[in-house]
Specification:
two-stranded antiparallel ribbon; two-stranded antiparallel sheet; elongated; Dna Ligase, domain 1; mainly alpha; 12 helices
């Protein structure tokens, strides 16, 4: 009996010891867990190791674990496991948003997690102005270091829609270019469906070509429908468009602007785009027109105008329009007065600057005729900057490029009065145009690059009094 009792006692003691051990382990485990929780919470909310403001990119397809690992590698957090577990506990694993974020210096893991899941990414975008050519668009894409890759396929001229495009970090240049093409297709389809059915173009491509000329002709939005009407009226009358931007595009092959209006020799140089030399529309657009230019080409004003000329030397002041050549001459005469006055003012400024410089140099040299060192000239002072000299009349661009009624390049004006040459015969008589030379637009691709100059037809340019009148 005694032996049995001793066995029972031993068993009870062993059981108690096991229970005590388990309880001890549990308590220790709880203490350790509590310590880990406290450590994790402290690490999660305490200031981070970032020494300065830093950008961090959440790439497409990243999960919370990947982001935590990259944050630790970049020295923005101390422990990726704490970051990952906290994101799981706070139910933020599915809240990550692709984009580029600003991580402030000393930001805690909590701050970073909140920014990446609730904050707004840094806006990455690229703006393509209206009237940019394909070459200019590609140049701007290449100059944006936030984009990757290169353009693998050069699009046709006129196929890109000018706008501001947002993109994710690491987006390729070709992908942004593809979006521009799709945007133009969508906008053009809408404009084409709402066009005036009587306009003398038969395809969307022709509409874009005319719109690109309108875009390059005037910076004044309200004038675009009237400028479009001028060119449509000329097409109906079988008159050549005679648009300076088309001339420049043909000369540069769209590679870049000339920085000036075409010279008489360039106006007479035959290219597929020189609308002083060809009938109808050029074979392709000369730029990428914006929405307002497309709408103007689709729904032009109702007018009889076939000429226009600048109101002043500032293109933003707009133009004067005329239905007859005689009225155009009157409008041109008004601009000639401004041109001559501007030339006289420039010469006067140049003379004054030269005289002031000579007096200052003489005073510094102690020339007694200049008043001596003790008696400086009354108007002595810093020399004015040397004014630009007028352009050589032999190479200057035509002062006016208003289309002439016979569609041919005009004769030179006489140096004495600079009056435009009078056209022979009926000034409104249209030019017979063979059926195969009616306005058409090519379905083929435009040149690889394009960038027409901001010159404007049917109107004079600032030039010397000896310049010929462009017609």
């Amino acid at each position: 009996m005694a032996d049995r009792k001793q066995v029972r006692v031993k068993r009870r003691r062993g059981f108690v010891e096991v229970v005590n051990a388990l309880l001890t382990l549990i308590v220790i485990g709880l203490l350790v867990a509590a310590g880990l929780v406290f450590y994790g919470a402290h690490s999660f909310y305490v200031s981070g190791p970032a020494k300065a403001d830093t950008t961090f990119v959440v790439q497409k397809g990243n999960n919370l674990g990947t982001v935590a690992e990259r944050l630790e590698q970049q020295g923005l957090i101390d422990n990726r496991y704490v970051f990952d577990i906290a994101g799981f506990v706070l139910k933020k694993r599915s809240g990550l948003k692709t984009g580029e974020y600003q991580v402030a210096a000393g930001a805690s893991m909590y701050d970073i997690l909140k920014e990446l899941t609730e904050g707004k990414p840094i806006s990455l975008s690229i703006t393509i102005p209206e009237g940019f050519t394909v070459a200019q668009v590609i140049q701007r894409l290449d100059g944006n270091d936030r984009l990757s890759g290169s353009v693998t396929e050069t699009p046709p001229e006129g196929s890109l829609y000018p706008d501001t495009y947002d993109f994710d970090p690491g987006a390729t240049r070709q992908s942004v270019l593809d979006r521009m093409q799709q945007a133009m297709k969508d906008k053009l389809a809408q404009v084409w469906d709402s066009r005036d059915p009587v306009i003398p173009v038969t395809t969307p491509d022709q509409l874009v070509t005319l719109a690109s000329i309108v875009e390059k002709e005037t910076p004044v939005p309200d004038e675009r429908p009237r400028v479009a009407a001028v060119y449509y009226n000329r097409l109906v009358k079988h008159m050549r468009l005679q648009s300076d931007p088309t001339v420049v595009y043909g000369l540069t092959k769209g590679a870049g602007p000339s920085g000036r209006a075409p010279t008489r020799a360039e106006l007479e140089q035959k290219t597929p785009y020189n609308t002083y030399q060809i009938d109808g529309l050029p074979p392709t657009p000369i730029a990428n027109p914006g929405l307002e230019a497309l709408k103007a080409a689709a729904n032009p004003d109702k007018s009889n105008d076939v000429y226009f000329v600048a109101v002043s030397l500032n293109p933003k002041d707009g133009h004067l329009f005329a239905p007859t050549y005689s009225e155009q001459q009157k409008n041109v005469a008004k601009l000639r007065v401004l041109q001559r006055q501007a030339k006289a003012d420039a010469q006067a400024d140049a003379d004054a600057a030269k005289e002031a410089l000579e007096q200052q140099q003489a005073a510094q040299a102690g020339d007694p005729t200049a008043g001596g060192a003790d008696t400086p000239p009354a108007d002595a002072g810093p020399a004015a900057p040397q004014a630009a000299q007028p352009a050589d009349a032999g190479t200057a661009a035509p002062a006016a490029v208003a289309p002439s009624p016979d569609g041919a390049a005009p004769d030179s004006a006489t140096p004495q009065d600079n009056a435009p040459a009078q056209p022979a015969g009926d000034p409104n008589a249209p030019i017979p145009m063979p059926p195969d030379q009616r306005p058409t637009a090519s379905d083929g691709a435009a040149p690889d690059t394009a960038k027409p100059a901001a010159s404007r037809p049917a109107k004079p340019k600032p030039a010397t009094a000896d310049d010929a009148f462009g017609g």
